[in-house]
Amino acid sequence: MNQKQLAVKALEMRAFCYTPYSKFNVGAALLTKDGKVYTGCNIENAAFTPSNCAERTAFFKAISEGDKEFVAIAVAGGPAGEEPSEYCPPCGVCRQVMREFCGPDFEIILAKTPDDYKVYTLKELLPEGFGPDFLE
Ligand code: THU
């Protein structure tokens, strides 16, 4: 599974979002160390705070299935019914969830199309993050 294939999966996941409030659809595809992919979409709620981002949906699916080692995540987001016109960066809460389970070189692929994506590392998007190592 290469970066482009992961980007395609994130883009495809935008079809499954539940976003009646923001109408902003985000898809994610999380690659494990052994090549498995967990997908996610954002799922909103009338009470707002129970809403879950696409990235955390993917992470929580993976963790709940016993996978805890990850190499990359692709994220694609933008207004529902349109192709993304911007790169959609993960929110702070999702970056913190990544910090819990991933190392500094974990790749975050922000995709507009299968051929137009930018790649960051977790240490670039969350410098000086607080993580489990501080509690050892
Ligand atoms: N959202 C995500 O799912 N991931 C991101 O990286 C940014 C924001 C969702 C949360 C909410 O459902 C909608 O996008 C608008 O903020």
How do the helices and strands line up, and which of them pair or pack?
Layout: H1 3-13, E1 24-32, E2 37-41, H2 54-64, E3 70-79, H3 92-101, E4 107-113, E5 116-121, H4 122-125
Parallel strand pairs: 3-4
Antiparallel strand pairs: 1-2, 1-3, 4-5
Bound molecules: tetrahydrodeoxyuridine.
Residues 19, 22, 24, 26, 42, 44, 51, 53-55, 75, 77, 88, 90-91, 94 line the site of tetrahydrodeoxyuridine.
Tag the structure with descriptive keywords.
five-stranded mixed sheet, 136 residues, alpha+beta, 4 helices
Give your account of this protein's structure.
Helices cover 26% and strands 27% of the residues. It contains four helices and five strands, in the order H-E-E-H-E-H-E-E-H. The chain has helices at residues 3-13, 54-64, 92-101, 122-125, and strands at residues 24-32, 37-41, 70-79, 107-113, 116-121. A hairpin with a 2-residue loop joins strand 4 (107-113) and strand 5. The termini are far apart. The mean pLDDT is 98. The site of tetrahydrodeoxyuridine has 16 residues, from strand 1, helix 2 and strand 3.
| Low-pLDDT runs | none
- H-E order: HEEHEHEEH
Distance between the termini: 34 Å
Radius of gyration, in angstroms, nearest whole number:
14 Å
Mean of pLDDT = 98
Largest sheet: 5 strands, mixed
User: What percent of residues are in strands?
Assistant: 25-35%
Bound molecules: tetrahydrodeoxyuridine
Number of helices: 4
Overall number of strands: 5
Structural class: alpha+beta
Taken from the alpha-carbon principal axes, the silhouette is globular
How would you write the strand order of the largest sheet?
2-1-3-4-5
